[in-house]
Amino acid sequence: GELSLQANLTGTFEALALDASARVALDLLGEVSARAFGRPRAWNGSVTWVTPVEDSLLVTATAPAINIWPKWDELTMRARSEGIELLPLLDQVPQLETLIGTVRLDVTADSLSTNPRFAGQVEVEDLQLALLDVKPGYSFPAGRIEFGAEEGARAHAELSGFTGRTMNGDGTLQLSGFFDLLPEGGTDYRLALSGQDIPYAYEDVFEAPDIDMELVLRPEERGPLLEGDVTLSLPKADVQLVDLTAPPVPPPPTVPNVWLENTHLNVYVDIDGLESRSELSNITLEGQARVYGTFYQPRFQGELEIVDGQVIILNRAFDFTRGRIILDRLVP
Q1: Rounded to whole angstroms, how far apart are CA atoms 325 and 229?
Q2: Do 191 and 175 contact (CB within 8 A), yes or no?
Q3: What span, in angstroms and rounded, lies between the C-alpha atoms of 119 and 106?
Q4: What is the mean pLDDT of the chain?
Q5: DSSP letters along 287-306, please?
Q6: By three-state DSSP, how is residue 87 classified?
Q7: CA-based nearest residue to 112, from 70, 80, 82
Q8: What is the pLDDT of residue 314?
Q9: Cα(253)–Cα(78) distance, rounded to whole angstroms?
Q10: What is the distance between the alpha carbons of residues 269 and 289, in angstroms, rounded to a whole number?
Q11: What's the first-to-final CA gap in the chain, in angstroms?
């Protein structure tokens, strides 16, 4: 990338004037240019981001000043864009295979250092996204985030209109919720995800043609909590056999995600007709399980019943007539 800076300080000690500009050019993100004008009684500034596909975002800021020093507690900002295409940002999100859509925004903010207040909206159109190694993707024709005042909150954001479908099949999704900055500090939020008839496939390992879900993410004292209900209808899982004589293969290095580490789970899963297949077995299971703990250290509690199945032991096939699998903590 390229970086250039320029600043001019003129005037007298009683009436200084500062004019500054900067420009940064990056191959993946485009060009960012900034200008600032400091005068004895006021500051004005602007930042313009131009993406590689010539979309733009303009942020302007003003603040009163005392002898050229800005009063940050009275800073006012505004961010505007007629449309930013999301596709050029795909390389910045390695968890996604597809990211398409347009974001438009007009948001103002003031008193950021003391009592933040926001107003305006962010609009999303024709959003399509797909997770890496997961099929199908998801499509949201429209959605909006409204910023405004709310009783008992310093700043309030509300999600609306995020109703989508799976790119394949008849699955429907709806995302709603809010996010508040509280007067005493801290945050309050509630994000709800509802889905019906969602198909899901992860590589060649797991496939579920029909998933219904009602999930909510909300805060509690120990951290974020994801809770709700998930129903899996006729899923299939291919179990990979483990060679106990082979040397262990270390997992690839990962960067810990603090948010996932602190997010707790309380999700009830109803399983209807899970077909578990491997080279030596083919078993159908059904039952219920509770998933708790955290994303990095999940715990399981529940019971699965073996409906029917077959297992091969010492080159002989045995048919199951009944059986149960008790789930308790880490190991079934």
Answers
A1: 21
A2: yes
A3: 8
A4: 87
A5: EEEEEEEESSSEEEEEEEEE
A6: helix
A7: 70
A8: 78
A9: 41
A10: 5
A11: 52
**Tokens found for residue 316:** 């002989």
Tokens found for residue 92: 């910045």
Rg of the chain over Cα atoms, rounded to whole angstroms, equals 27
pLDDT tens per residue across span 194-226: 999 999 998 888 999 999 999 999 999 888 999
In whole angstroms, give the CA distance from residue 41 to residue 17: 10
Q: Which residues contact 15 (CB under 8 A, 6 or more apart)?
A: 40
3-state secondary structure of 258: helix
Longest CA–CA separation in the chain, Å: 96
**Per-residue tokens: 119:** 């107003």
Q: What predicted TM-score, i.e. pTM, was given to this entire model? A: 0.81
**Residue 279 backbone phi and psi in degrees, to 5:** -65, -25
Q: With contact defined as beta carbons under 8 Å apart, do 21 and 35 qualify?
A: yes
Give yes or no for a cis peptide into 136 (omega within 30° of 0). yes
Whether residue 241 is predicted with pLDDT greater than 80 in this model: the reply is no
Average pLDDT over residues 146-162: 84
103's CB contacts (< 8 A; 6+ apart) are 81, 83, 84, 86, 122, 123, 124, 125
How does DSSP assign 5-59, residue by residue? EEEEEEEETTEEEEEEEEEEEETTTEEEEEEEEE-SSEEEEEEEEE-TTS-EEEE
AA letter at 245: T
Q: Which two tokens stand for residue 38?
A: 């400091």
- Residue 45 pLDDT > 90: yes
Tokens of 321: 């007539």
